TrEMBL record:
Highest taxon of source: Bacteria
Name of the featured protein: Putative 3-methyladenine DNA glycosylase
Enzyme class: hydrolase
TM ranges: 66-86
Amino acid sequence: MAKIARDFYEQQDVCKIAKSLLGKLLVTEFNSMRTAGIIVETEAYAGVKDKASHAYNARRTARTEIMYAAGGVAYVYLCYGIHHLFNVVTNKQDVPHAVLVRALEPVEGIDIMLERCGKNKLDYTLTAGPGSLTKALGIRTNYTGIDLTGNEIWIEDGPSKLPASQIVAGTRVGVAYAKEDALLPYRFSVKKSPWVSRGKGLDSLPL
């Protein structure tokens, strides 16, 4: 499949990008080991005006500085000191938008994923959740800033374009601190996919 070009990531509408990522393949290739999964759930974070964003109110720290890069690089951060969460930086330079990839349907290198996660057999917990999918694909915080048009982590077109009727929207997970912004319909998933992560809020809001 064709690798996604940089101009895709530099679009200005972060929710449009978050929806467009559904059905595409997130791929890693480390030490000649390729793993890939179809993206089935995403969350959009709209920069300095979004109270749920790490860049809210133009916050710039050593961790978040990569969010201000031009779209097409990775932002991987550690959550609760345990989970490595993979985000796609979007928009133009100095506009800190990002899309969190929350869940995948594994399609390539499943044996490698199982070994990385210490599992004996495939089940939905392998990649249904942002911390689970990064462990399965071998993505860690040291990959923050990596070029997503390169040859270690990238995104490819899926086998077919996902129709809008197959996309559902809802509220984001774990952002109650964002008050009214916690209610924004910025979480998107593939309708009825069993690989979507647990969490309330999907199917509750219109696209």
